[in-house]
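Box S2. Input/output pair 1.
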Amino acid sequence: MPPAAGDSFDWRPAPWGDTLVCVPLAHVAHGWTTRQLPLRGAPAIERAGWAAVAASAGLDADQLVRLRQVHGARVHDAGAGPSGVELSGPEADIVVSAQPDRVIAVQSADCVPLLMAGPDGRAVGAAHAGWRGTAAGVAGVSVRWLAERLGARPRSLRAAIGPSIGPCCYEVGAAVADQFLAAGWTPGQTQAWFVSRDGATFLDLWRANADQLERAGVPADRIFVSRLCTACHADWFHSYRRDGPGTGRLAGYIRACA
């Protein structure tokens, strides 16, 4: 039985088993995979897994756009480069699209897989934000790009945070908080993102990214958090923090409407 997600999320059947969807994004093909779908391993396994992701959005494997993620805030426009599961993709952590013949995707194993869409589904985005990407303001960069380049007004966007490590499990050192300050965030802005508990500090990536989305102009009632911690649910999600470098990957994917 899949774990219970936030009120705005639901589990739907997929060729590999289950996919998580955000109900307010139901007007576009999208979802987050679980560990039921292998996306990391031998080349043939990876190709088959990513082809299944593309098929779930109604497209072929050569219409999938992936990224070579580097924990930054660089943006790739899916209409400006190659696609296909054989490619490692451009170096970026945000991908946007207004192309209905492309499905865009990010992968994660604790980091936030963020999906966004306008009300008509003609502009969509997917972003990968760990602590470095969150410090770099990935959520806000994504919103601004969708607005300035693809014409999606921030106040009309709907944004959803998929399964990722929660504040219950994401213990960090003081140096991480210092990096947020070095990136320009003020102590007042970050106070709610870092939680002290039993002498340790925990980072709330969910709150930080939701706050950054709202700061960029997305209304609070159009920001949805799955509240599924990848570290807590070992039967369903991969977690780098829990399992180490050899763990698998999950995908968040989305496709623009025609």
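Box S3. Input/output pair 2.
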Amino acid sequence: MTARVREGVFFEPPTPLPRGPHQLPREQVQDAQRQRLMMAFTELLADRGYQAVRIIDIAKRAGVSNDAFYDVFANKEECATAAHDHFAAVLERRAYRVDVAPSRTWREFVLSSVGGYLETITADPVVARAFHLELDGIGATARQRRRAALLHFAEAQMREQERLCASDPLLKLQPLIIHLGSVHGVRQLACDALEAESEPDFSVLIPDVVNWLVAAAYGKTMDGAD
């Protein structure tokens, strides 16, 4: 049986629409259908891989008609791209925690961002599997969106490091390519864990990854030596 995404992590199932004639605005109906379709696509992607997912299957799992699917998305790839963009936006919000006070040290920031990312994908392994292991099968457009999202994360990380350098003379401001490499590296560690286990505990990666990123930013080896 195809596993369901876990409510309240990446997706919040919309309130069921009333049956039969109703006075709900068209935009409200389409928003609810869009959310259900993205959830259904993500579940099927994680279970079957992109090529085996059909629009009729997405619509059936979402509880809407094929016509309703085409009212919201032009094709399967557009649904896939929208679902991935939603996934990336939630990861950014949970990793960089824009609603909390700024970090006081680089270690505090790295622990918050890496911890937020890994704890979030631990909380919903179905979504993690879909967009970490099955995304490549969607095609070039989805891969380009993934690269753009990872670059965006790296830029946010570099900006935070630049801010913290002003109060920490020992902290070394690293070029964007270093931040991009670290973002890709952490993601690859998550992919490897998903290949090894169906529901890995990503949190076990946090201590070593945090030490790695902190040591690199201070120009030190992992044991603290210059």
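Caption for Box S3: Residues 222-226 have pLDDT under 50 and may be disordered. DSSP finds nine helices and no strands in the chain.
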